[in-house]
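Box S2. Input/output pair 1.
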Amino acid sequence: MTAARPLTAAGVPVQVGDGAQVAAACELLHTARIFADLPESADWAAVATARILEHLEHDVRADGGHHERSPGYHSMCLEGLARAAAVEPELDAHPRYQAMRRWLTILSTPAGWVPHLQDSGVVWLDGDRPAEGSHNLAASGYATFRHDHFHTVINYGPYVGHELEPHSHHAALDFVLSGWGVPLAWEGGGPPSYDDPGYYDWYHRVRRDPLDRPAPPRRPLHGGRVPLPRRAAHDP
């Protein structure tokens, strides 16, 4: 409850794509409904609901994936939304919330775990079953292939930059192959912590533009140039 007042303060902007703000808004709604007898609870609920709906509208891709393309941060948002939906039934039926749940089931192996794509750890499904068949998550840039005991996820999507800690790394067409419930080939992964100096090499790598074009206006914390967008794509 200590954080409820700052979260509802006038002038606090909605940060599109900010998973932490999604989680905070969901906790605010949960708090407002549990302590409904408090004088400020109605205001808390109104602000939280508006922000959750705005994030669902702007942060969730057409295929249900969160903007940051990281299963771990996607799962963090989904857990918050589940808590909010538990006290606000209308959210449970929201199509983008349901699409987010399905997104994880598509990336999941038959054994029920989602690979550690981007800077994510391994994510386990909670109450949902892995989706059958092969799928192309075109908006997120992931393709999955399933046959018999084998399951493959290929990352062909964009690098998602961020002024603090990007959750995309610079590998293109990296993949995870599993079979018989165990991993057979892992993607490159990355440093386990933002405090690891290797984080800047893997997620913030500075690359020289061969055409010497001007650097984009957004720069990483270490002052180098933001890398060029990779050109991996899906060819139907």
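Box S3. Input/output pair 2.
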Amino acid sequence: MRLFSYRKTWVVTACACLLGLAAGQALAESVTIERKFKPGAKHYVEESADITQKMPGGPAGPVETTMTQVVGMWEEVKKGEGDAVSVVMTFDRFSQKVNTPFMGTLAYDTDAPDAADASPMLKPVFDALMGQSFTLKVGPKDAIEGISGVDELQSDVSEKAGNSMVWAQIKQQFNADSLRQKWGESAMAMYPNRKIDVGETWTSKTREPYQFGTMITDYTFKLEKVTEREGNKVAVVTFTGKHSLEAPAEPPPGQVTPELSGESTGKAFYDIDAGLFVENESTANMEFLIGRPGMEEKSKMEAVAKSTLRYLSPSEREKQEKEASAKAKSNQEKKSEESKEKND
């Protein structure tokens, strides 16, 4: 997440204390929260997540899988037809580290492609996704009117990744419905597109394609306050979500849709001048009951996902790349020295 520094100068006088209290109060009682798409604007969007999954493991105890992942994209706004705008989304980073009791650790970061622990399973797929793009057509009131470029993306990645098992597993996440929902409709769900009073709530519903059907989330948002953060006027919004899973109308033969119950909580910061939620932190707790054809007994899987979505400037992104590359180089040199000492 982006770290913010709060600088305060303390002067021990009654006048200064009163001024300090006044400065910390809300700046306004209401604010219009809407996404402002400005042609020519270019941002770097980063979504990071830490996920832990637990399943019963029989006599050996629960089986735990952990995953840390980062997806980075450039978002460029261009003028479209009429009142619409075209938002070009270009993948710029994929990083993932998975720990499982069966396969050990798999890790790869496109910011550090030559790292000593680079996984040969992840590398060809993530490298093929780098630089791939698609375009969202956004109409009035943030309506997602269309998506293009997905067929070319899938075709190119399939050709470069070859018979990759990893690509076969995640390919569905990069089809038109999934990309439109994740980076378009779900991203717009936070914006009520109207004036909101401090303390007021609003709701929205998202439907995201999922491996076993459609994940439905009912959100409730609340404007907590309008204040300043790093010199910028921001609206602080908290939210809760309730998750469920809807079975497909025609499930594949032998597929049993799991039962899902889950809740999420989070906080987001809306930059009033930029017209953009610049940071969004959330924690989701979910429980799946997984059945098998012809069997009444179901297995329980628990999952906790902590995620952060934030917008970075081009200079912040450049600094991030250099730091990742330097860290990977340092680790590689350290491993090389350890190996040399061991052989000696």
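Caption for Box S3: Residues 120 and 313 are 31 Å apart (CA to CA). The first strand starts at residue 30 and ends at 33.
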